[in-house]
Design a protein that fits this description.
By secondary structure, this protein is an alpha+beta fold. It folds into two domains: about 140 residues, no CATH class; about 110 residues, Beta-lactamase (3-Layer(aba) Sandwich), CATH 3.40.710.10. About 35% of the residues lie in helices and about 10% in strands. The strands form three sheets. It has a three-stranded antiparallel β-sheet with strand order 1-2-3. A two-stranded antiparallel sheet has the order 4-7. Helix 3 runs parallel beside helix 7, helix 3 crosses helix 8 and helix 6 crosses helix 7. About 35% of the residues are buried.
Length: about 270
C-alpha cells in the first residue's frame, strides 16, 4: 500500500497511517453516519481488540476525502489508565515499508531510479551469497518481497546497529528462491531498497522521508524511532501479550534495535 498526496488530503493521510498500527477495517459508509452505524463500528473494534489482545486502538472512517468517524478505544497506557484519543500516536510498524516504497517510486518518477534495473547498478559493492543473484536482483523484487532472499524468520535475531551493518548481512544469507518467482516477506530487503535511496539522494532515509513525504502531507507530528514516540505526551505504550501475565509493557530500551531497521519496520505519525 502506498498513500500519496493524490490519494488522500493532507490532514487525512497521516491519520490513516497512524490508525493502521492497530487495525485496518475497509468499510462502506454513508455521507452521514447514523447512531446504528457508529454502534456497529464500536462493536467491530471491541471484538477485534478482544480477538487480538489489543489494549487500545484508534479508528477513522473516511468518505469522499472527509472523516465521518474518528474515535479512540481502550487505553494507550494501562498503568496510568490513560485512554486512547484521536490524537494518540502509534508505532505503525511495517507500514513504514509503504513510505520506503513511496520514496523509491518518487525517484523512479524523476528518472533517478529504474525499478527493473539490478540493484548492483546503484550499489556496486553489494554482495549476495549467490553471484548470479547479485547480478539479477532488482528494486522491484526487493519492494515486492520476491528477491529470492529468505523471509524474516530466517535472518539473525540480532539486528546490526547500523544500516551498513544490515546491508553487510546479505553476503551471508542463502538465496532460497530464484529472484522474481516466490513471495518471501523480508523486512531487511526493504532496508536495502532504502539504502539505494540513501545512495542516490545523499540523504538518510529519515531526512528524505521527512522532507519529501511528511512535509507535503502536513504530517508535522510524525517522527522516527522509539525515542520520538516515547517523548510524545499522547503516545501508545507498547505491550506484549503474555498468556499468564496478560498485557506486559515493553521497555522502550528494548526497541532501540528498530532504529537501523526503520525503513522496513518503524515510525509513527499523526495528522496535524
Amino acid at each position: 500500500m502506498i498513500i500519496g498526496p493524490k490519494t488522500m488530503t493532507r490532514n487525512l493521510c497521516g491519520r490513516l497511517l497512524a490508525i493502521c498500527a492497530v487495525c485496518v477495517a475497509v468499510v462502506t459508509v454513508s455521507p452521514s453516519l447514523s447512531a446504528h452505524d457508529s454502534g456497529t463500528a464500536d462493536a467491530l473494534m471491541l471484538r477485534l481488540m478482544s480477538t487480538h489482545n489489543g489494549p487500545g486502538a484508534a479508528l477513522a472512517l473516511i468518505k469522499n476525502g472527509s472523516i465521518v468517524l474518528d474515535k479512540g478505544y481502550g487505553f494507550r497506557d494501562l498503568a496510568a489508565h490513560a485512554p486512547v484519543t484521536t490524537a494518540t500516536l502509534f508505532n505503525i510498524g511495517s507500514i513504514s515499508k509503504s513510505f520506503t516504497a513511496l520514496g523509491v517510486t518518487q525517484l523512479v518518477d524523476q528518472h533517478q531510479l529504474d525499478l527493473d534495473a539490478p540493484v548492483l547498478r546503484y550499489i556496486p559493492d553489494l554482495r549476495l551469497s549467490d553471484p548470479q543473484a547479485t547480478q539479477a536482483v532488482t528494486l522491484r523484487q526487493l519492494l515486492s518481497h520476491t528477491s529470492g532472499l529468505p523471509a524474516d524468520e530466517q535472518w539473525p535475531q540480532q539486528v546490526p546497529a547500523t544500516r551498513d551493518g544490515i546491508v553487510s548481512e546479505f553476503a551471508n544469507m542463502p538465496i532460497t528462491a530464484q529472484p522474481g518467482t516466490r513471495f518471501q516477506y523480508c523486512s531487511r530487503c526493504i532496508v536495502l531498497a532504502a539504502y539505494v535511496l540513501e545512495r542516490i539522494t545523499g540523504q538518510s532515509w529519515e531526512a528524505y522521508t521527512r522532507t519529501h513525504i511528511f512535509a507535503p502531507l502536513g504530517m508535522t507530528m510524525a517522527s522516527f524511532g522509539p525515542l520520538g514516540l516515547e517523548q510524545a505526551p499522547d503516545r501508545a505504550q507498547p505491550y506484549r501479550h503474555d498468556g499468564v501475565l496478560g498485557q506486559v509493557p515493553v521497555p522502550w530500551s528494548r526497541l532501540q534495535y528498530l532504529e537501523p531497521l526503520g525503513p522496513g519496520g518503524w515510525h509513527q505519525c499523526k495528522r496535524r
